[in-house]
Structure prediction request, 334 residues.
Amino acid sequence: MNNLSLLDNQPRAATDTSAITALCKAAGDPLRMQVLKVLQQNAYGVLELCQVFDIRQSAMSHHLKILANAGLVATRREGTTIFYRRNESHPDTDLQSLQHALFQTIDDAALDPALRTRLESINRERSAASVAFFNQNAARFEENQDLIASWADYGDSVESFLESSIANRNSALEVGPGYGQFLTKLSSTFAHVTALDNSAEMLEQCRGRATRQGLQNIAFTLGDTGLALQEQLRSDCVSLNMVLHHNPTPGDIINDCAQLLTDGGVLLITDLCAHDQDWVQQACGDLWLGFEPQELTRWAESAGLTEGNSLYLAQRNGFRIQLRQFVKRLPNKN
Prediction:
């Protein structure tokens, strides 16, 4: 592991080396190393990790405790479930370079095919549950969404943010357009617009609204970002408007969107900041209780995007909305 020498050049006190020992010991176990690899782009609960690694809950909890004590993983409660994710910023600032180098090395390593297959199974289960919710609640989507944040309250800000963010206006893609409130603005701004949704019921609701408004330049596609990649769709702007907290693998979706952007294209993310109002999981089908801004930044930068402008809006009911711009920079020709 040749890049683990990135420690600060200042000597550490002998009594201060215990943190280094704990970190190296935690990462030195083959199973814990694979856990850190699995948590690269997503968060999982203990039972899900038990399913991935085919071990007892007590054993997995033991390994996660060691990783947490070493500052390598962090926990977050989502409703009644505690999810584990990698801690990208070690609490000991002197160890952050070592931790960063460790994570880089782990990320470059291959994931065991059996683990990958089990992960994909879990993610499919999460995705199927989300699609089923929206298919069953398509007629009440706007009512449910208004419980958290009404488009009437933040839509003008999103549309203004769009105008200040884009350079090219040929094509746009909206992933998970809901009832299509944002499509009206996208349709008038771009020559060609694609509305992509993996819920057939939601897509029909969206199509009906666009038809009633006389929007002519929108293609409605049933599928996900994986299908868009297969069809080699490319867009100057990709919008994720209140989508990520419904998605089982938000980091993967951001990575897909980065690949769907043209050079110089912009990814616009509108989503909730992290919160603790777990009632939204049952009432609105949310999988995640919002996101810390640095989480979105990390996923976007990992996908090769550069952070741009940000705007934060406080809602009357205690939620906060983050509007984020990430840019796919032109390749360096030097």
Observations:
- Confidence is low (pLDDT under 50) at residues 4-9.
- The longest helix spans residues 113-136.
- The CA atoms of residues 38 and 111 lie 8 Å apart.
